Amino acid sequence: MEPNNIRDGEGYWWHRGVESPGCVHAHSRVRSSGMLLWYAGVACWNKVDGRSSDAIGYEDNSSARSRCGYQSCAPSDPNALNVHLVPHSHDDVGWLKTVDQYYWGAETYIQRAGVQYILDSVVTALHENPDRRFIQVETAFFHKWWKEQSENRKELVRELVNSGRLEIINGAWSMNDEAAVHYQSIIDQFTLGLRTINDTLGECGRPKIGWQIDPFGHSREMASIFSQMGYDGLFFSRLDWREKNTRLFSNTPEMLWQGSPNLGDNSNLFTSILYNHYSAPSGYCFDILCTDAPIIDDVDSPEYNYQEKIEGFASFIRRQAQYYVTNNIIITMGDDFN
Ligand SMILES: [Zn+2]
Q1: Which candidate, 159, 198, 204, 160, places its Cα nearest to that of 69?
Q2: Domain named Glycoside hydrolase family 38 N-terminal: which ranges (predicted)?
Q3: How many angstroms separate the most distant Cα atoms in the chain?
């Protein structure tokens, strides 16, 4: 395992950070039967001038500031199937429990769910390993968590966002319903969420992708609003099973949604339907709420399952990929309050 900070022969410290145009160090990728798996983006080394090893932390890695957004994406290979594993947590802003019960983790007899612990553990995990990535969606929960954090912790989160390792997706106060709400309410709750993100995280926190993965049905007006708000694309999950089947077998789970005939091309929105709801592939949920076996790579263990796990994952990827026409596919790694 490589260290996060090293010093070169001239006495400069280098910090293991994110991709940059001049980056020459190895990418964390695995080639397998023409597939390119990005476990968590790329790892490169950024020069950190004039600092001791103790002073080097993500807070000080100012060279990463301008590399949020698409700049921080792992480079893809046009000649391979690029598999993007996207760690996420779907945290309803009120469902079986109240918002505060969900946030604090109360009333566990109703549902084991505590969003504060998810955000705590995500930020710690991202801090420990710069290869890791995570997307944060619901700003109502992020706001409650942010208020509780120390200035040091807030600065760490800003650096994670500025370097693209923590990416805000959707970013509204909640993931709104699309059928019963009035468009004014949608705009209001997006305004509140996006304003909060902007006030706390700044420009790098601005979401570019819509993530309406759990509303039960989707409206054209929502696509138009996303487009008018400057979003570049949208993922959703729930649609009638017959339409999903039709789309999968006609290789059209991705489309350019024409949001409004009046606005024309200005309302177009690239839209992709998730293949596997928004869950991790069956057998590959390693959250505390799941019961899937971990990957056991000790050949001396009678529980050794490494080969089986790798082959199972690869076959899931191949199955999904046959339905999509591009060679970039998303694998969601997360679930409800996971
Ligand atoms: Zn939900």
Answers
A1: 204
A2: 82-336
A3: 66
Pairing of strands 5-7, 13-17: antiparallel
Enter the DSSP assignment of 90: B
Instruction: Output the CA 272–ligand 1 centroid distance in Å.
Output: 18
The reply to whether 327 falls in a domain is yes
Give the Cα-Cα-Cα angle 87, 91, 92 (nearest 5 degrees). Answer: 145
Q: How far apart are CA 330 and CA 317, in angstroms?
A: 9
Q: Tell me the residue range of the domain where 46 lies.
A: 5-28+41-72
Residue 35 lies in a domain: no
Is residue 251 pLDDT above 70, yes or no? yes
Quote the pTM value.
0.80
Query: In this structure, are 106 and 66 located in the same domain?
Result: no
Q: Quick one: pLDDT at residue 73?
A: 86
Catalytic residue among 188, 214, 287, 292: 214
- pLDDT for the residue numbered 49: 35
The DSSP string of 52-70 is -GGG-SGGG-GGGTT--GG
CA R_g for the chain: 21
Active site residue 91: no
- 188 with 242, same domain? yes
| Residue with the larger pLDDT of the pair 171 and 75 | 171
Position 153: which residue type?
Answer: R
Residues 16 and 87 in one domain: no
Q: How far is the CA of 90 from the centre of ligand 1 (A)?
A: 6
Q: Taking the C-alpha atoms of 271, 182, 137 and 331 in order, what is their torsion angle to the nearest 10 degrees?
A: -30
Q: How far apart are CA 312 and CA 305, in angstroms?
A: 10
194 belongs to a structural domain: yes
